[in-house]
């Protein structure tokens, strides 16, 4: 006849095995979610980096080939092949020569330029570079670059917790050089 401590030990081992079987799928699901989110975050950062590089080239009047080369350098040849680049020139807003403030209304083409930085307020540091530089004529021409890629092509794993038909967009706005 087995002793009481032997049956108790065997019973505890059985309970531990059942607990492991119940916890393992939950643990693997959480782990897969973490990997998917990390993959999505990396893909979004790459898209932002790609739009920044393309915007820099576009602001200096670069060619479409130069923009594609920059895209390939960041995303790699396979992803860059499927990426869409959209470039839009945001027409300048007129500035008031006396006050130096931008008007809030749309320009003559009905478009609004994005404000870069805040108006000076008491206590602001004048050396903080939060204001975009203005051209001598009082106009600020901006270039907006959007780089779009489907999630299914942008991510490495299939564990991304979003619909595979979603699009990741990297967007950068720069001043024309």
Describe it.
- The protein has 177 residues and is of the alpha+beta class.
- It is 44% helix and 14% strand.
- It has one domain (8-114, 132-175).
- The protein has a three-stranded antiparallel beta sheet with strand order 1-2-3.
- The model is unreliable at 97-136 (pLDDT under 50).
Brief sketch in words of this structure:
The chain is an alpha+beta fold and 177 residues long. The chain has one domain (8-114, 132-175).
List keywords for this structure.
3 strands; three-stranded antiparallel beta sheet; 4 helices
How much helicity do the residues have?
40-55%
- The mean pLDDT is 78
CA radius of gyration is 27 Å
Query: Which range does the strand content fall in?
Result: 5-15%
Tally the helices: what do you get?
4
Shape: rod-shaped
Uncertain segments are 97-136
Largest sheet: 3 strands, antiparallel
Class from helix and strand fractions: alpha+beta
Number of domains: 1
Order of helices and strands: HHHEEHE
User: Based on DSSP secondary structure assignment, what is the total number of beta strands?
Assistant: 3
End-to-end distance, in Å?
91 Å
> Strand arrangement, largest sheet?
1-2-3
């Amino acid at each position: 006849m087995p002793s009481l401590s032997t049956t108790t030990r065997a019973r505890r081992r059985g309970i531990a095995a059942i607990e492991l079987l119940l916890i393992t799928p939950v643990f693997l699901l959480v782990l897969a979610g973490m990997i998917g989110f990390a993959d999505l975050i990396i893909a979004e950062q790459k898209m932002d980096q790609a739009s920044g590089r393309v915007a820099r080239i576009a602001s200096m009047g670069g060619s479409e080939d130069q923009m594609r080369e920059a895209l390939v350098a960041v995303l790699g040849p396979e992803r860059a092949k499927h990426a869409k680049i959209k470039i839009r020139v945001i027409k300048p807003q007129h500035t008031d020569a006396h006050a130096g403030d931008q008007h809030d209304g749309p320009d003559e083409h009905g478009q609004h330029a994005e404000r870069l930085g805040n108006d000076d307020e008491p206590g602001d540091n004048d050396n903080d570079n939060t204001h975009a530089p203005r051209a001598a004529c009082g106009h600020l021409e901006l270039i907006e670059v959007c780089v779009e890629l489907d999630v299914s092509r942008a991510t490495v794993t299939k564990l991304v917790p979003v619909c595979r038909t979603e699009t990741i967009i990297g967007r950068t706005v720069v001043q024309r050089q």
